[in-house]
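I hope you will forgive my troubling you with a question about protein structure. I set the record out below, with my sincere thanks for your time.
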Amino acid sequence: ELLPVLVEETAKLTHKVTDEELARAKNQARAGVLMRKESSSTVAEWIARHLQDYGEYRDTDALLKRIASVTKEQIQQLAREILAQPEMGLATLGPNAEAVTLEYLRKRVA
């Protein structure tokens, strides 16, 4: 029951993102950024991760501005790009594991 719903929701990301979904995602992202400032060890880890991953420290205000600037169109484009990756894989487990293949998912998002 869950697998078809996941496929449909993933497919919707490539064509339709509602204002409500975008607002909820932005709120979750903002909360995550702000909660990371709760302890000095978390802040230290945050700075280290940014230096390692980006070669620079990205401060909270800059990240919050970037989150606020994300559009529905950007989400849709990114979803299409990710799902079109030739090296992407899909693994499923359970009695209906063969019911959804990567090719099926790609057809649903095309």
Q: What stands out?
A: The chain is about 65% helix and 0% strand.
